[in-house]
Design goal:
By secondary structure, the chain is of the alpha+beta class. Among the domains are: 251 residues, no CATH class; 88 residues, no CATH class; 76 residues, no CATH class. The chain contains 18 helices and twelve strands. Strands 9, 10, 11 and 12 form a four-stranded mixed sheet that branches. It comes from Trifolium medium. InterPro entries: Transposase_28 (IPR007321). This is Transposase (putative) gypsy type domain-containing protein.
């Protein structure tokens, strides 16, 4: 049984790397050779998403015989498990957040248990949906690290929820260990994405150099510190991370509780039944983010709908009864014993010598080490043994009836047993007939596959056309929105111009007593000129009338002088200052007497 380390506790002395064997600290179960070769089928090698004729940036390659998942292979490549790309939907290039996690832990991506990578991916998607900045510190406030060592040697690092927000992808990911290949950066752009520029001091001078953003091969550095070193306490979070944590907790807190169910076998069939409490009432439990459904979503639109509706789904929560748990544990122990005996107790992938005279060839050993079927299914579906892939499976792993089934068969009456046998034989005959009919060329699965492939191609073409139409409509929508905006602005300017025009017209409207002389002035300048002209004419007329009146006065009274004449006279009569001016009444009297 592997020793587990959680937090900073250590139960065994840790094995450290040496000059002779830098990977002596790696557990034996992590040293198995990859099953994926050029001849191995089927294999999933899509490590990046490309559309159309986009250039290739990343590619998958098989490893050499002496290379393992932990090996340092090159500066632009690293080993990775097929499961991560096939089942979890990871694609290169890794996000900056994911690379930040690897760098923070000082671990290569393949040093992380696949369930660890599940949480990285799910956390990023939920943060994107809730508009929360995904930070490393917030991530390690929600999760804590788990290490499992075997005889002081290390293998994969996994996660455990500290704040329960996410469901597990699967309880235990099996079968991933021997299926890995090399992921290599092909283009210069891809190679640059693996490195960053740092400034270091060399001999007192600042020198810049490139270094990987995360370890490309397995490293022991991570295990030099306890797991608590990599975690973040809630009180140490920034204000932004505190707000993000509250959003995540509130989001999951809004989920409806789900009804608990369990499954049992009834007459050979799996039946789902509600889980009831002691009072006979339905048991409900809190629900969390369904990572399995989230990572199965094919695109962003489906993910958005799923996350929007997840709070109100109220889906069933499958639980296992106590006796079922015991049977599962016993089954696991039996399978483990069978595997260890079948594998000969050696998982390193190198030839093993059992005695001085008998050597096991690598080919024979690889055949012996070929893994038995791994049933990774939380819903406890009954899986058919892999008899096509593993010929001789039933000969190697003999069938056995469990004790409970034996008792049921023995307790049946002959009539009841005959009834079951007749029904089962009839069903078997129907199955044989169906298989024979479907195997014909006219109705065979090959024909159906061809039709479905043609239909898929049609749907892809239609989807591409619709995508183009959507892009075109989005462009037209943007143009329409801009045109509407400009039209509203133009309408506003036109309205103001009309109001100004009406105001000016009202200001220029003729009055009731206005004559043709002023009505002809269309501008303020013309009106001012006409006013100046009228004022000039009035001034000339007034002056002329005044001059005529003065002239008449002078004719009637020659002694009467104007102010101008008096000024002239003052200059001439300075020698007689005592002379008095005639009074007005005297002058008027003289005029009357004359």
């Amino acid at each position: 049984m592997a020793d587990e380390e959680v937090g900073t506790s250590r139960t065994r002395e840790m094995v450290r790397p040496t000059e002779e064997d830098p990977y002596v600290w790696v557990a034996e179960k992590a040293k198995m050779r990859s099953l994926i070769t050029n001849e191995y089928e089927p294999k999933f090698t899509i490590v990046e998403d490309r559309i159309g004729d986009q250039p290739e940036n990343w590619a998958a390659y098989t490893l050499k015989k002496n290379q393992r998942v932990y090996s340092k292979i090159g500066d632009d490549r690293f080993a990775m498990y097929e499961f991560v790309f096939e089942k979890l939907g990871f694609r290169m290039t890794f996000s900056e957040f994911a690379m930040g996690i690897f760098d923070h832990l000082r671990l290569a991506p393949s040093q992380l248990n696949p369930n660890f990578l599940v949480f990285i991916r799910a956390y990023e998607l939920v943060c994107e949906h809730l508009e929360v900045v995904p930070s490393v510190s917030l991530f390690f406030t929600i999760f804590q690290l788990q290490r499992k060592a075997k005889d002081g040697r290390q293998c994969w690092v996994s996660l455990k929820s500290k704040i329960k927000l996410f469901d597990m992808f699967v309880d235990s990911v099996r079968g991933f260990k021997p299926k890995y290949y090399l992921v290599r950066a092909v283009s210069e752009e891809a190679k640059e994405s693996l490195f960053r520029t740092v400034v270091v001091e060399v001999d007192g001078e600042q020198v810049s150099r490139h270094e990987p953003k995360f370890p490309l091969a397995w490293t022991f550095d991570h295990f030099l510190r306890g797991t608590d070193f990599y975690l973040t306490r809630a009180k140490d979070l920034s204000e932004q991370d505190r707000a993000g944590l509250k959003k995540l907790v509130d989001y999951v807190g809004s989920f409806k509780a789900g009804p608990c169910v369990y499954r049992e076998s009834v007459d050979g069939r799996r039946v789902t039944r509600p889980l009831l409490d002691k009072e006979g009432k339905q048991v409900f439990e809190a629900r969390y983010i369904n990572t399995r459904e989230l990572l199965s979503a094919k695109n962003a639109a489906v993910r958005k709908i799923l996350l929007d509706q997840m709070a109100n789904q109220g889906s069933e929560i499958l639980r296992m009864l106590t006796d079922q748990k015991k049977r599962k544990k016993m089954s696991k122990k039996g399978v483990g014993s069978a595997r260890s005996s079948a594998a000969g107790g050696n998982s390193s992938g190198s030839p093993r010598v059992d005695s001085p005279t008998v050597a096991v060839s690598s080919a024979h050993q690889q055949k012996r080490l070929r893994p038995s079927p791994d049933f990774v299914d939380l819903e406890l579906k009954t899986m058919v043994p892999q008899c096509w892939e593993m010929r001789g499976f039933l000969e190697k792993y003999t069938l056995e009836v469990v004790e409970k089934e034996k008792r049921m068969i023995r307790e049946m009456t002959p009539a009841r047993r005959e009834e079951f046998l007749v029904s089962d034989i009839a069903g078997l005959m129907r199955l044989v007939s169906t298989a024979l009919v479907l195997n014909e060329d006219s109705a065979g699965p090959g024909t159906e596959v061809t039709k479905l492939q043609a239909h898929v191609n049609q749907l892809k073409t239609r989807n591409l056309v619709l995508d183009n139409k959507v892009a075109d409509l989005e462009g037209k929508r943007d143009v329409w929105i801009q045109t509407q905006k400009e039209l509203r602005e133009t309408d506003e300017r036109l309205r103001k111009a009309v109001e100004e025009n009406d105001r000016l017209k009202a200001a220029m409207a003729p009055g009731e007593k206005e004559d043709d002389f002023t009505r002809g002035a269309s501008t303020r300048v013309e009106l001012v000129k006409k006013v100046e002209l009228v004022l000039g004419q009035l001034t000339e007329a007034a002056k002329m009338g005044f001059d005529n009146a003065v002239a008449q006065l002078e004719v009637l009274n020659p002694r009467l002088r104007t102010t101008a004449d008096e000024e002239d006279a003052d200059g001439m009569e300075q020698g007689n200052p005592d002379a008095e001016e005639p009074k007005i009444d005297e002058v008027e009297g003289q005029g009357e007497s004359g």
